[in-house]
Amino acid sequence: MPPPVPALLVLLIVGAVLGAALSERLERIEPHRLARGYLIAVAALLGVRVLAYIAANVFGAQAVRPLGTGPRDPTNLAVGFFYGLAAAHAMRGRLNAFFREPDVLLAMRLATGVAFVLAGLVNAFLKDLGVDFFVHAGYTKTFRLFIMTAEVLGGVALLVPWRWLTLAAAAGLTTDMFGALYTQVRVGESFTQLAPALVMLLLLVPLVALLLLGVKRRWALIGVGAVACAVVALVGGKLLLRREPVTTQVRIRKRFGEERAQTHFEIRILQYSRDDQPPGEMFWLSRNRLVGS
Taking the alpha carbons of 222, 34, 24, 27 in that order, is the dihedral positive or negative? Predict the structure, then answer.
């Protein structure tokens, strides 16, 4: 099974190439029929993810877990297809009617909203509700529960056909994802573990773009909004910090002293991640074995 980031890139690139390559043929199809076909494709791929998600988290079928995760979600293929069509439209301008079809907006609502609902609910299947990572990152358990609830409710709000409610929810969830990226980078997670949050941002962009069709300087507004969300996430992340992250090494040194910690303890840190949710859950596990005296 490929790592999260390569898997995400493959799905998006393959989808984008297919969208761009087939765009000329698709331009001959009536917009409402093409939009309905796209909606059905998104719903089918999303169904695969939901089934894999339930099988893995409820029935313990670990073999299908990757299909239920954000980076390896087959729906990313349809998202890449959307980007490919958008690129073709930017060059030839013949798919304007397709992008204005209600079914296209509904497809993106489903892909994005369900993704956030699943991301928030998956924490209910974790032993500690996913708070361990937040505590080690310097946040409180209450904040973790707030984020979990916000992702579920925000995902539901994206499904409601009220434009300004969707935009407000998208702004909040974008801030959440930038906050996730900031936290993961700050605690030293690898680039691979940033994939879940990146997936969500790639889903939010086309949804917001569709909601703002017809608005002057749409992309400038989206850019300014994204920067504002990033600033809020950065400032908020710093203000909400309870303390600096405490690693296993630091705790052992505080308890036993620097010299004894280095002389008598072998510290083995096992880091693993759950990439099926934003942010990727990381737990620092340690096995401390007395090797002297």
Answer: negative
